[in-house]
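Progress report, Aim 2. The chain analyzed during this reporting quarter is listed below.
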Amino acid sequence: MELLKKLAALFTPKRGRDAYAYWLYVQCDRCGEKIRSRVDLRNDLSIRYGESERDTVYFCHKTIMGSGRCFQQIEVDLSFDGRRRLVDRQIRGGKFIGEEASFD
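Predicted structure tokens for the chain:
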């Protein structure tokens, strides 16, 4: 049994900050559930080309639903600059909360 735990630890990624992740922390307007969701900055973004390289932006539309207490869909639209830094965010059906909020 100990051998299996060591093997699992060998192949499990270390915890820490993922440079290619943007974490969303939202709260449902209907039931109040707090939800954490991940956006992969390498794969989840769509590109919108501009006239110049400076005008090129990325965007992501994400639909989030909680664990099943209610089936309210939370719609999130994110806009990123050419370096994949967040420049704008919009939400419908919920509100943004801080990372420090306690999650059940």
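Residues 18-96 form one domain. The CA atoms of residues 1 and 7 lie 10 Å apart. These observations will guide the mutagenesis work planned for the next reporting period.
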